[in-house]
UniProtKB/TrEMBL annotation:
<comment type="similarity">
    <text>Belongs to the UPF0235 family.</text>
</comment>
<protein>
    <recommendedName>
        <fullName>UPF0235 protein HBA54_05960</fullName>
    </recommendedName>
</protein>
<dbReference type="InterPro" id="IPR036591">
    <property type="entry name" value="YggU-like_sf"/>
</dbReference>
<dbReference type="InterPro" id="IPR003746">
    <property type="entry name" value="DUF167"/>
</dbReference>
<dbReference type="Pfam" id="PF02594">
    <property type="entry name" value="DUF167"/>
</dbReference>
Length: 109
């Protein structure tokens, strides 16, 4: 994937072997970093949990899976994802998603 100069990066913190796949929303880690908290039911073996996380985020945000790329943290709970596409449009879409979640609806799930 060739991201271009303004492709957004997203830091996610995930838990594996959850009862169901779910995007928990934004959270803060002990070091003060803001992350997207994600839970997937797949085990952390042979890339299964990473693939499940990308599939979940693509479905939640209505993006093609090919637009999400794991660029750091392949074997760590803290992941960095590259989101390919128009950064301004993605920013608006993700802000809408976050606003809907804060109102209590569960868009994309």
């Amino acid at each position: 994937m060739s991201p271009g100069p303004f492709a957004p990066l997203l830091t996610a913190f995930w838990s594996t072997c959850a009862s169901r796949d779910r995007v928990e929303g934004l959270g803060e880690l002990d070091d003060g970093a803001t992350v997207l908290k994600v839970r997937v039911s797949a085990p952390p073996e042979n890339g299964k949990a990473n693939a499940a996380m990308i599939k979940l985020l693509a479905r939640t945000w209505r993006l093609p899976k090919s637009s999400l790329s794991l660029v750091a943290g392949q074997t760590n709970r803290r992941k960095t994802l590259l989101i390919a596409g128009d950064a301004a449009a993605l920013g608006r879409d993700l802000a809408s998603w976050a606003a809907a979640r804060s109102r209590g609806s569960d868009p994309g799930e």
